[in-house]
């Protein structure tokens, strides 16, 4: 079963390394013009829908900071095995 998760923590770390400065999550939310609650939901993968407007603002923020990323960079996809209780080992 495929799992899709936001990749914001890794993007933030890469941005901090690239720009040699730290960013708080509050600063990111303010600069992206999204609520801290939305950013927190993304960080903890507590959303089942994609907020296109929010991601566009996030893309703009990263570009303004000199880190050119694409929409796909916001996500990681894993293929996790499914468990079937009816299957005997």
Quick synopsis:
The chain is mainly α and 89 residues long. The protein is 46% helix and 11% strand. The two termini are 19 Å apart.
Give an overview in words.
This protein has 89 residues and is mainly alpha-helical. It has one domain (2-74): 434 Repressor (Amino-terminal Domain). It is built from four helices and two strands. It has a two-stranded antiparallel sheet. The protein is globular. The two termini are 19 Å apart.
List the helices and strands and how they pair.
Layout: E1 2-6, H1 8-19, H2 25-32, H3 36-43, H4 52-64, E2 75-79
Antiparallel strand pairs: 1-2
Label this structure with key terms:
mainly alpha; 89 residues; 434 Repressor (Amino-terminal Domain); 2 strands
